[in-house]
Amino acid sequence: MLELPETYAFSEQLHPLLKGKEIASLSRQSSPHKFAFFSEDTDYSVLLERQKIKAIYPVAAYIVMECENQLRLVFRDGIRFYYVESEAELPKKHQLLLQFTDGSYLACSVAMYGAMLLYHGSQHPTDKYYQASAEKPVPYDAGFDFDYFGSLLPENPKRMSVKAFLGTEQRIPGVGNGCMQDIFFLAGLHPKRPIASLKEAELRLLYQQTIQTLTKMKELGGRDTEKNIYGQAGDYQTILSKNTYKHGCKVCGTDIVKESYLGGTIYYCPECQPL
Questions:
Q1: Which of 128, 170, 221, 271 fits a disulfide with 254 by CB distance 3.0 to 4.6 angstroms?
Q2: Which of 95-104, 151-160, 253-262 has the lowest mean pLDDT?
Q3: What is the full DSSP assignment across 40-109?
C-alpha cells in the first residue's frame, strides 16, 4: 500500500523520468481487476493521448500526475508503478498502461485495491482523505512541529491507543499501519498503550520517531515491503513487518507478537514495548 514514504520516494523517481514525455496511447484493464477504480463516464484515452506530462508530485497518501490541459491523474492505495523502456519488460498484468512517444511505458497494477482517477480543471477528489491530505502538514513539513503534534490529541482521549491516535481520523495523512510498526518500536511504545498514559517525554519521543523514521524510509526509497518503479524493494529495512517478525526482536531476542488490532496487523516486542 502507498504510504507517505512511498508517495514521496516514488514521485521523486517518476518526476525526472516522465516530465515532458508525451502520451502516445493509453489502455485500461488489460487484466481486469474488480477492485481497480477509475473515474466513471470518463474516456481516459480521448483526454490523455497526445498530452505531455508536466509534473508528478505527492499529496500525502496520493501521487498526482499533472498533464497538459489541466488534466490530473490521481493514484492512491495499492497502486504499483512499473517504468520500463520496452514492451518486453512490461509486467504480465496491469490495469493502466501509458505508452509514450519515445517508446517507454508506465504500467500501473493494483494490489488488493487501488484508484487511478482522472480530474480536469478545478475538479479534485472530494473524499475526506484527499481533503485532509491537501490541507494538513505532514511530518516532512516545517509546520509539523511538536506544538502541532500535540494539538492532534483529542480533548478526551479516554482509552484511545497510540495506534488509534497515529493512524485514525486522518490526523497524519499518509501514515498507515505499515509505517507505524517501526515508529512504535523505536519509541518503545506498545500499539495498544493508551495515549493518555504517555508522559511528556514519551510523547516527545513518539513525535521525534515519527519524523525520523518516516524521513529515513523516504530517503531510502521506501520500505523493503514495497516495490519501487523498477520492481525492486525499497532500501529501508523494516524492523517489524511481515518480512521480519519470525526472526525475534533485534534488541532482546524475544519472540515478536503478531495479532489483529484496529483493522490491521500489529507486531510488537512484549519486552521492549510493554503495555
A1: 271
A2: 151-160
A3: TT--HHHHHTTPBEEEEEEETTEEEEEETTTEEEEEEEEEEEEEESSGGGS-S--SEEEEETTS-EEEEE
- CATH 3.20.190.10 residue ranges for the chain: 4-134
The pair phi, psi for residue 139, each rounded to 5°, is: -60, -10
Convert the pLDDT of each residue in 234-257 to its tens digit.
999 999 999 999 999 999 999 999
Quick check: helix, strand or coil at residue 119?
Answer: strand
Residue-wise pLDDT for 111-151, tens only, equals: 999 999 999 988 888 788 888 899 999 999 999 999 999 99
Class of domain 138-229+237-268 (CATH, top level): mainly alpha
Mean pLDDT of all residues in 78-91: 96
**Nine cell digits for residue 99:** 505508452
CATH tag, 4-134: 3.20.190.10
